[in-house]
Design goal:
Elements (H helix, E strand, L loop, with lengths): L2 H21 L10 H4 L3 H26 L1 E2 L1 H11 L6 E5 L6 E9 L2 E14 L7 E2 L3 H16 L1 H12 L5 H11 L8 H19 L4 H34 L17 H37 L3
Parallel strand pairs: 2-4
Antiparallel strand pairs: 1-5, 3-4
Helix pairs in contact: 1-10, 3-4, 3-5, 5-6, 5-9, 6-9, 7-8, 9-10
Length: 302
């Protein structure tokens, strides 16, 4: 990614930090103390990865013993490795899916003041009694989401802002699910360029007539979400390979690198679009200030 874009994104991240702390505080039950999450992005990611590794080390022997675990055992491992007082639950989810999500509830009946009040790992409902060992990498994938949300709190705060301001609507869901968090069909580099051009057009169409603040909020939320998905899939693949070497049964999906999502390319596109909006806005304000100064000089008496 271009160095200028990286610098702009870093400045936006600092702006995120200030806004999130002043207007969009996370509840203590879903965040870690500042002294735990402070430091560089790389340092925080290392801490998140260590939490996931501790979770794996605690969970693996349980699966190894019987070839499956009970949800209660999964919950015990979560409780053991996660810091106390955090509200991270285990619930029955949709058929065929393991998932992770955050729940937003209104504050005093006001949805614009809504807060995330818990994070959840969802178990596929056909496995609500027994979870087969082959799904261990998938569970690790979901725990990576939880760990990343804890150690990168601005990701969670951005998501809270999107939901509490009713920006998480049908149009946004359709854009994300159908054109961002989706598998792409390509064979050549030119195919990728074509896909990205079409994606940029769809995103710009979605953002049309929105305020600069709303555009940045949407783009940053998508960027953070894709960053987390990229990390979670890489983690799932890493642990699936490790388990396969131990002759552990794992699913073919977990052993697939999922390059067809085009996560790196989509992240680069989102970074470019954010930088362009910021640059355009800066140019607009610079021209406005220049015009005001010129008028001020004209009004001065000789």
């Amino acid at each position: 990614m271009d160095l200028t874009i990286i610098k702009i994104l870093a400045k936006i991240s600092m702006f995120d930090f200030l806004i999130n702390n002043m207007k969009n505080n996370l509840l203590p039950i879903i965040k870690l103390p500042y002294n735990v999450v402070k430091g560089s992005i790389e340092r925080r990611q290392q801490k998140a990865d260590k939490l996931v590794e501790r979770f794996y080390q605690d969970l693996y022997p349980k699966f190894q013993k019987c070839g499956y675990i009970r949800p209660k055992q999964l919950e015990e491992s979560m409780t053991k490795v996660l810091p106390p007082k955090l509200k991270i639950t285990l619930e029955e989810g949709e058929a065929g899916f393991f998932d992770a999500w955050s729940d937003v509830i209104p504050s005093n009946g006001k949805y614009h003041a809504a807060k995330i009040n818990k994070m959840t790992i969802g178990i596929s409902n056909e496995h609500h009694k027994k979870i087969p060992a082959k799904y261990l990498p998938t569970i690790i994938h979901e725990m990576q989401h939880i760990a990343d949300s804890l150690y990168h709190p601005k990701h969670l705060a951005r998501n809270q802002y999107i939901q509490s301001h009713n920006l998480d609507n049908y149009r946004f869901d359709q854009l994300y699910e159908n054109f961002l968090y989706n598998l792409e069909d390509f064979n050549t580099a030119q195919d990728k360029i074509s896909i990205l051009k079409k994606l940029e057009y769809r995103i710009k169409k979605f953002l049309k007539r929105l305020s600069v603040e709303e555009k940045i909020n949407y783009l940053q939320d998508i960027r953070y979400t894709i960053l987390q998905e990229q990390k979670a899939y890489n983690t799932e693949f890493k642990y699936a390979k490790k388990l396969k070497k131990k002759h552990f049964d794992v699913t073919e999906d977990s052993l697939t690198k999922n390059n067809d999502f085009m996560f790196p390319e989509k992240l680069a596109l989102l970074g470019k679009m954010i930088a362009e909006i910021i640059k355009r806005e800066r140019g607009f304000h610079a021209a406005k200030i220049k015009k005001m100064k010129a008028k001020s000089i004209e009004k001065k008496p000789n």
